[in-house]
Design brief:
Number of strands: 11
Radius of gyration: 13 Å
Distance between the termini: 40 Å
Number of helices: 0
Oligomer: single chain
Length: 126
Amino acid sequence: QVQLVESGGGLVQAGGSLRVSCAASGRSFSWYAMGWFRQAPGKEREFVSAIGWMSGSNAFHADSVKGRFTISRDNAKNTVYLQMNSLKPEDTAVYYCAAKYGSSGYYTRESDYDYWGQGTQVTVSS
């Protein structure tokens, strides 16, 4: 079992950058595929980015963030990151990280994941 804690959210102006982090407790973090999702007010939670286990050579981003967001992982620190550049007001949302044990691929559906964090708020002002 793993517990996930997001951090790094905040208020940023449009065009700015922010990096959110997700720290995982427990052992064997490298065996988990990880993902980021977000939920804006009044909207359903949506997929943002995902990365495979181990070295994280498999990564995938939603079209809405491709070229602006980058997911990465540091297994020594049990942490996955989401670097967000060129932020837009429509990126405003609560950002959640999620983990799926024992999978080498990347996953884009909420139902694929076993564990979730509590979320961190990202607000982009225009």
